[in-house]
């Protein structure tokens, strides 16, 4: 039984890690820390875990050494403290933004601060099983992509790798309120956020840089907060090289995702559920990817959706852990999502 | 043209007063204060007022003397500062809780602090046009009831006055998130509040005391936060004296509300809209009141609904102002609400 | 491996049965029927099951004999066809309303039609593991309670059995839109139902009869449709015999539910999650039960919540199946629910 | 007092016309027809109008001759019956799709049927006061644009007319459920539609053709149903000719909209309400238009929002009527919208 711990367990990503790890048959959740809530029972903060864990949050000085350590810590703090985190576990799985971008300049450009540990950046393997599974099997340092970034990377990489799209990609991302975390602020007030269509990043959202890095394509991304707690949906437009046919696009996705446990190709001609919708993915580790061709147009419209806290964060991190620790890749991640929901 | 001002205009009740007063043909909004946001443009805080006012919030030392002064100030502070407010206007209309309860002991019991100005309490006329219109015509001090209180008072008083109900009344109140105001806190986070059915006051909600005072009936009230920004719905159960027939109940409501501009009796046998629902009342000054009889039971179930910020607050206050200043009672309050919404 | 089938798999309760049974390690889903959608792939109707099943809905003439047969058929039809259903399986688990009420007259009274198979009614064991576990171990005919009924039965029975409450119980039930099933009608239109507080049964909701039967108490229930897809929350008021203390009430619940796998006692003094809220129960088989005492009042206010499609239907049915087939009672029902959600 | 009538008053657009016309001081609503609900009281169908009108829906054979006739009839039927409608009023204001597209081939292309009255098409003036006010003053036949089309036309035309943008415009439209009307169908079921991010038109939405026609730009539009009853938000990306500076863009909008009563330029550097959001526009006739520049990019991102039933339909139609009948343009359209909402 592998022993794992979570740093920063009182937030939403941290809570989702605790939900998945306490139900995971292959690991033992040994500790979860919270600076704010040290000593408080986990299920007092995450009421869905009532009856599932009797652990309380501990202070970091109580930490021991673990098989795997999950970091749900803020960016900036994470890169400053990474050396101490690395000393605490065989495998460190970082859910912060600090080690996602390979280029320190790009980091400084998008995050507005110089990177504090550029020499460490290249030692991290991207936490993207679909494209880095082999490296993840032996990786001791894993950096999990951002929620919208992962939705974009999984939507566009197969087409980019097959050379099927070229030129600038316009990405329209929609996200639920849990992406903002559980720190109260006017922007996150229910009365302000409920029913909102809030364009909070008309240009240059940070996840744009991750998608560009992974796909090698120039990406312009806009992010809008929509009425949902969980869920990310991405809509991307790109120009197709050569003939834009459904057959070519579908074949490119099939070739990459045919055997993937957590990516589904969803592109139907009719029905209520023709394209990916985060509505039915809450709690699940699936990323659904679909597309549409406009006959006579050189463009393809790609749509992807996931639960920002699961495949967009904690679930994806657990999938990486399973791969690294030699556990069945699906273990602890089988929940299918709900319909209706 | 009457000159009016609002103390505490940056909150939700304050903002609603500004929405109604800037559109009111009979008054001029001379000033609105905000301690937090003094100097900031009103439409920067309340974006729905873009193009409707160019005023900025002022500090209180900028205040002059007005025909009517609306107080959207916190309870406790309001009773402590009432003397200075009274000096600022011919008519003071208080939307805080401090002068609603005639008995200082009851206030202390429900609010947990002794009343700071008990001698002033009885000088306030209840801001309930349906039952105090005559006194309101000459009242210089008006205390507007709480949002759930008003829904309960309008639902139960006609039956109580007619002696149609007796014994304890069980009230189940449901309210939207705007009732909590715009101060950010974990309880009001969208991710926590969205879709919630939060029983935040299982017993002894403060508005219970107002309903009991107005109706003379023993009331037990439970309050639940539901998924809505605006809106209050009350469901009350009471025992009927004598025969519980639809005819007797309807007659009692008709007798009181037949000519009321802002109370509608809504009790149909079929259709989607048989009973009051706050869903169609957003922005309107209506309180809808309905009821149902259980054949063979001595009980009546009464249902009422209103917009907590309008008939449950700012709109009701403007209606009182219209009465007091000799303006048409409906003026500035004609919006019907939306369907669908 | 037990072979099970579902009659009426295209509805919401049917779909939830399919979600749980396809993920259940102890059973094989052998068939699911749909009159409307025979021949259509299950995951085309329930998109959350994409990749989890390749089955298509079959016509009933394709049915064989099964270890357990789940009926998600309409009431009336179910009682008329029960004999043929009984011939198809060793154990029949009925999720319709037809065999819930022991007294045919009560059925006729609440459902407006005479019961078609009164002689069969008493051969069904109530699908309420918390109170009928022993009988369920050998029951060949199981009738699962209604969603709001189960929330009420689990909330009130421990107090009734302990003789802690007496007299009429006033129940205020709130329910999400999935309870109405997936048959389109004006009442279920998103634009009409969204944000609604629709009192659709001010008196005499059918589930009232089930709660009265199970608790032996006179019950008056009101049902309101609230803004949610899943979820039922019940609020009940009753008079306490003798002294109404938190200690006595809590002890009564502890005595009954201490070892129950799917009932949690939720009654805290503070925090966001003091009382049961269906918001965090979507997809889980938990029923949370809480209560509040009003000091100096003889009343107790009881609050319970569950997911109407899980503990209020399909999940509860699977729990009954586990008991009857000798499988671990929790099997296939471990999902904890999500926070935030 | 002008006498007006509405054909097809039982739908959502029809109901919104009735809400605006019954509150309009300059006109008398003489009749409203409904084939489905002839004889039924208007306020039984549109409960927000309780107390505002005692009219019942009439059959069309009861119609007389009016100063203005509003058509809220289905497309196809409208073009087939237009001659009889034209005979019934001095001014016909059509809210259907049939006379929006100047080119019959384009109509056939997007609507899949040949146009039944091509000779009439060019006799209609576009119901877009911002760009056709002069012609509208004398127009006897007015065709009001589609909800998403109007949001796109108002967002893009000033930039197109100023020659500030060139090449293909990518439009991402989000819409609430009321846009689908009140005909019940599985797609509009609350349980299916609630919380959905449904890409129902990945390419070639019909309103795309209207925007292209009005702006002269090639437009590619995608439409997504989002969680809202009312509201449309459009996000458009275009390449800027010459230098893409905020100053040039803002100047182009100011030049066109400076004196427009119902278009507001909303583009702020900070705050919760930096860009247009339909959330605060429900019930109002405003279209808010904003934009963002990505420094160093040749692109501009334009955002617009409106209430699909008001500025996207009924309100815009009433504004056209005011212009045509010589009434004050703002009359009956002053509602500001709500915050919070």
TrEMBL record, chains A, B, C, D:
Pathway: Amino-acid biosynthesis; L-arginine biosynthesis; N(2)-acetyl-L-ornithine from L-glutamate: step 3/4. The keyword Cytoplasm applies. Keywords: Amino-acid biosynthesis, Arginine biosynthesis, Cytoplasm, NADP, Oxidoreductase. The active site is at 147. PANTHER family: [LYSW]-L-2-AMINOADIPATE_[LYSW]-L-GLUTAMATE PHOSPHATE REDUCTASE-RELATED, N-ACETYL-GAMMA-GLUTAMYL-PHOSPHATE REDUCTASE, CHLOROPLASTIC-RELATED-RELATED. It catalyses: N-acetyl-L-glutamate 5-semialdehyde + phosphate + NADP(+) = N-acetyl-L-glutamyl 5-phosphate + NADPH + H(+). Catalyzes the NADPH-dependent reduction of N-acetyl-5-glutamyl phosphate to yield N-acetyl-L-glutamate 5-semialdehyde. It is found in: Cytoplasm. NCBIfam families: argC. It comes from the Bacteria. Its EC number is 1.2.1.38. Belongs to the NAGSA dehydrogenase family. Type 1 subfamily. The gene is argC_1. Residues 3-139 form the Semialdehyde dehydrogenase NAD-binding domain. It holds the Pfam family Semialdhyde_dh. Gene3D superfamilies: Dihydrodipicolinate Reductase, domain 2, NAD(P)-binding Rossmann-like Domain. This is N-acetyl-gamma-glutamyl-phosphate reductase.
């Amino acid at each position: 039984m592998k022993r794992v711990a979570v740093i920063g367990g009182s937030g939403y990503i941290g809570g989702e890690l605790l939900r998945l790890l306490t139900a995971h048959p292959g690991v033992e959740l040994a500790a979860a820390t919270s600076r704010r809530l040290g000593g408080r029972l986990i299920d007092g903060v995450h009421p869905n875990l009532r009856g599932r864990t009797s652990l309380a949050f501990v202070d970091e000085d109580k930490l021991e050494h673990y098989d795997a350590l999950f970091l749900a810590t803020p960016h900036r703090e994470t890169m400053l403290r990474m050396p101490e985190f690395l000393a605490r576990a065989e495998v460190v799985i970082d859910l912060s933004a600090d080690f996602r971008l390979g280029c320190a300049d790009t980091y400084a450009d998008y995050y507005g601060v110089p990177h504090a540990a550029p020499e460490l950046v290249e030692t991290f393997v991207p936490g993207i099983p679909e494209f880095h599974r082999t490296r993840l099997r032996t990786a001791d340092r894993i950096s999990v992509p951002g929620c919208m970034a992962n939705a974009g990377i999984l939507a566009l990489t197969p087409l980019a790798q097959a050379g099927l799209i070229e030129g600038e990609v316009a990405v329209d991302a929609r996200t639920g309120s849990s992406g903002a975390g559980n720190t109260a602020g006017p922007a996150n007030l229910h009365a302000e956020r409920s029913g909102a269509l809030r364009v909070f990043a008309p240009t240059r959202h940070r996840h744009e840089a991750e998608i560009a890095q992974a796909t090698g394509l120039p990406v312009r991304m806009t992010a809008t907060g929509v009425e949902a707690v969980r869920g990310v949906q991405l809509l991307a437009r790109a120009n197709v090289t050569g003939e834009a046919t459904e057959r070519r696009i579908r074949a490119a996705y099939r070739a990459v995702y045919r055997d993937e446990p957590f990516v589904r190709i969803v592109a139907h001609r009719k029905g209520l559920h023709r394209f990916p919708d985060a509505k039915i993915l809450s709690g699940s580790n699936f990323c659904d990817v679909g597309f549409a061709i406009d006959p006579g147009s050189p463009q393809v419209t790609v749509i992807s959706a996931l639960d920002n806290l699961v495949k967009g964060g904690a679930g994806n991190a657990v999938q990486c852990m399973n791969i690294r620790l030699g556990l069945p890749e699906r273990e602890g991640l089988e929940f299918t999502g709900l319909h209706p929901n």
